[in-house]
Amino acid sequence: MSKASMLSLVVVLLLLAVVSSSIYVIDERQVGIKLQFGEIVKTDIQPGWHFKWPLVQNVKKFDARILTLDSRPERFLTVGKKFVIVDSFVKWRIEDVRAYYKATAGNRWQATTLLSNSTNKGLRDEFAARSLTEVVSGERDQLMADITATLNEQTLPEFGIRVLDVRVKGIDLPEDLSKNVYRRMSTEREREARETRSQGMELAEGIRADADRQKTIIVAEAYRDAERIRGEGDATAASVYAEAFNRDREFYSFTRSLKAYTDTFQGKDDVLLLQPGSDFFRYMNSTQSK
Amino acid sequence: MAWNEPGGNRNDKDPWGNNGGGKNQGPPDLDEAIKQMMNKINALFGSGSGGQGGSGKGSSQGSGGVFALAFVLLAIFLVWKSVYTIDEQQRGIVLQLGEYSRTLEPGLRFVIPVVEKVIPVNVTSVREAELRQEMLTQDENVVEVELNVQYTVSDPIAFALRVEDPERSLRHAAESALRHEVGSTNLNPIMTDGRPLLAQNVRSRLQDYMDLYKTGINVSIVNVKEARAPAAVQAAFDDVQKANLDKERFVNEAEAYANTVVPEARGRAQRMLEEANAYKEQVIAQAQGEADRFKKLLVEYKKAPEVTRERLYLDALSKVYSSSSKVLVDMEGGNNIMYLPLDKIVSNTGSSAARPEEEQNVSDIADRVIEELRSRNTRTTVREGR
Fold first, then answer.
1. Could you give the CA distance from residue B95 to residue B117 in angstroms, rounded to a whole number?
2. Mean pLDDT along residues A79-96
3. Could you tell me if B213 and A91 are in contact, meaning their C-beta atoms sit under 8 angstroms apart?
4. Which residues pair with A89 in a beta bridge?
5. Residue B3 predicted with pLDDT over 80
6. Does pLDDT of B61 surpass 70?
7. Which one of A48, A278, B207, B373 has the fewest CB atoms closer than 10 angstroms to its CB?
8. For the whole prediction, is pTM greater than 0.90?
């Protein structure tokens, strides 16, 4: 009884082994091919579970997703004899599984190497036909489209690989060139800084000059007005004097002279040498009226 | 990594290694479980009924019990494997024997154990990627840009199944998009006010790439956090900033100067005008005063001209003589007066002038001078007489 049960267990296990080696599952993310004694009998096996003959048939599975090839930065020459260091990546997927298996034996590393070589060649050719400015800026989209198209012409029939996109992650200048760029940038900034400062001085000088002009004009106009006012005053005064003094010109001279005398001789420092003959000293030497 | 999202701990996380999925999972687990159970049961029987010794009978009874227990445990295991909690943040991608069958919404969900496999994908959390690179601009300058990309998973099926390492794809694509956009912009806009536009362009370009690569990623925000000159030329760029400040300073200083000079000039002008006006008023008032005085005097003068005239004359002269030094020379046409020590007389009078209370001294001095002159005069006359 124990032997029978052991036997049944062995049979069950054997059956399980046979079934498990004859049923295989292709994941949603995979694509498979079926080989019979090394010969491809079925390609493009879709996700799900499938049968195969155990031992006789063999199944290889490949990644069906969009894959990334991240190549190392490479030096390329552009039209202007400028070296640039280009860092790129390629988006690809396996389209023709049969061709892919033939070219690479399903080895991803080998596929990557093949693709990387083709990409570099394509990039080198395209860069060689363009100037640095074109590469750096506007034409990059066109450049990438061209490279993608050229690559597909080769990789699709030869490797079964569909290249979706080639993109440049980075274009850098080699050290000596970038030093030149830095120097140019520095001098440009210097120029800008100098210009800015000079503009500042220009503006400042203008403002100062304008202020000085205003000052001069204000003062001059004030002087003009002041003189005019003084003149008015003088004129009025003159007419007042004239009106009054014209009434008796002789008496005016008399009084004005007296005033002038008193105004002129006011200090002890003025020394008068007098002769007693004047009217003032009329009574100095005699009491008699003369 | 998408397969390492929280909540997926019950699941088979490895996207690569376990190709067989459900099929491979079954048998080894079963074997192991049976083996474990056998061990446990053997140990149990060994301690409990080992002493009785009926090995054949014991083993047959034991194997029956072993199978029953194994089935129970297997059933528990399968039920446990068939229940899934999908978090509110997640969607569960169900692969049925490798083939995509459905997507699980949040909540308690059931799957067919062993046959079906669940890949949970977080679709609501905002993920971030940071980039920081030096790159060339269109005008062949070098700029260092720091970029922050925020994204969510909009299509969990594509994210989990269609592309290898979607987040690495995003990084690469972001680098490429940023380089491209920076490469088609000049340095100045990037450094100054062109950043929002740059970010917007990078975002739309990046989204195009993401759609092309079928990553199922939705790029929500792209921020250009910083764009600055490389360290090697930073000093020059700083100097430009300083120059701008200098420019402002120059202008401010000049304006300060203008703001002092012009009002000062206005003040001075005001003063000049005020002074002129004052002069005018003064001159006119003086004129009027003097004129009026003259007119008043004239009226009285007309009444008694002789007397008034003489009085005015004497008044004026007395005022003049009283306030100044004087020398009275009572002689006729003599030249010898020139030898008088005038300076002495004046200095005497000068010193006496310092003391106004001695004003009467002036007349004394005058008297003395007159006497002196007179005595000399007599002497001369005497001499003449000889």
1. 5
2. 86
3. yes
4. A70, A167
5. no
6. no
7. A278
8. no
pLDDT band at B31 (very low <50, low <70, confident <90, very high): low
CB contact under 8 A, B323 and A170: no
Strand partners, A170: A87
Say how far apart CA B380 and CA B50 lie, in whole Å.
187
pLDDT of residue B324: 74
Contact A229 B277 (CB under 8 A): yes
Question: In which element (H, E) is residue B344 found?
Answer: helix B342-353
Q: How is A96-114 classified by DSSP, letter by letter?
A: -HHHHHHHHTT-HHHHHHH
Chain A nearest-CA distance from B272, in A, is 6
Beta strands in chain A (DSSP E): 23-26, 30-36, 39-45, 48-51, 57-63, 67-70, 74-77, 83-94, 161-172, 271-274
The partner residue sitting opposite A164, judged by closest CB among B212, B276, B323, is B212
Place of tokens 């052991």: A6
Q: How far apart are CA A228 and CA B280, in angstroms?
A: 10
Contacts with A, B 288-317, CB within 8 Å: 288, 290-292, 294-295, 297-298, 301-302, 309, 312-317
Q: CA of A144: how far to CAs of A149, B169, B200, in Å?
A: 9, 17, 22
Q: What whole-number distance in Å separates Cα of residue B49 and Cα of residue B46?
A: 6
